[in-house]
Design a protein that fits this description.
Elements: H1 3-17, H2 23-43, H3 51-63, H4 66-73, E1 80-84, H5 92-98, E2 103-108, H6 111-123, E3 129-133, E4 144-150, H7 155-162, E5 166-176, H8 181-185, E6 191-199, E7 208-215, H9 218-221
Parallel strand pairs: 1-2, 1-4, 2-3, 4-5
Antiparallel strand pairs: 5-7, 6-7
């Protein structure tokens, strides 16, 4: 996809999602996409190779989660977000670009993927984007208002491996395809799914949803 066509497509996605995005943020999103394409040839960051599909399957998919994430984080000064199994920075880099007042920490166990996101943060000048090359269950970092994952693991593992990183009033946001009823049913009694939010991703004919999870009050867990 030519740069002008990519910008036009991206701007149409942003408009369809009702997001307020500056020209500089559009530039940054396109910069991330270009870096993903360039590095992917050597580092195998994603199985998607076609630039058009990268925009629709990755960038547009992540952009659809920005509004819901911003809604949860509204009114939280110095909000912290952790993106678990971030890979090529999806959705962590997208969240860092569009939510500049939020600190986003991308976590991945694969060194080359963590190195890529560090380079993205440097080249795109994203001071609110941090990177951790670590196993998330051993990670020590400020606790998060929102812990997000995309194509990372089962809900049970996602919650179990990250519960020590969740702030007292924080929540988990898992980006999924179809609503994962079996995974939801397997969650422990200490947490609850309080919302499954359908997503409409412009240009993508596939089911997408956000699974919102929070800890149950202790009194309810033991009752």
């Amino acid at each position: 996809m030519a740069p002008k066509a990519a910008r036009t497509t991206l701007e149409s996605v942003i408009a369809a999602l009702g997001l307020s995005v500056s020209p500089q943020q559009v530039d940054a999103l396109l910069g991330h996409l270009a870096m993903l394409q360039r590095w992917n040839a050597t580092y195998n960051l994603t199985a998607v190779r076609d630039p058009d599909q990268m925009l629709s399957q990755h960038l547009a998919d992540c952009l659809a989660a920005v509004g819901p994430a911003a809604r949860h984080l509204a009114g939280r000064p110095a909000a912290q977000v952790i993106d678990v199994g971030s890979g090529g920075g999806l959705p962590g880099v997208v969240l860092a670009i569009l939510l500049p007042g939020v600190t986003v920490t991308c976590v991945d166990t694969v060194g080359k993927k963590a190195a890529f996101v560090r380079q993205v943060a440097a080249e795109l000048r994203l001071p609110n984007l941090r990177v951790e090359h670590a196993r998330v269950e051993r990670l020590k970092t400020p606790r998060a208002d929102l812990i997000v994952s995309r194509a990372f693991a089962s809900l049970v593992d996602f919650v179990g491996w990250t519960s020590h990183l969740l702030a007292d009033d924080g929540v988990w946001m898992a980006m999924k395809g179809r609503s994962p009823e079996a995974e939801t049913a397997a969650l422990p009694a200490s947490v609850e799914v309080f919302h499954v939010e359908p997503l409409q991703v412009p240009g993508l004919e596939a089911e997408r949803c956000l699974v919102w999870i929070r800890p149950r009050p202790r009194a309810l867990v033991h009752s």
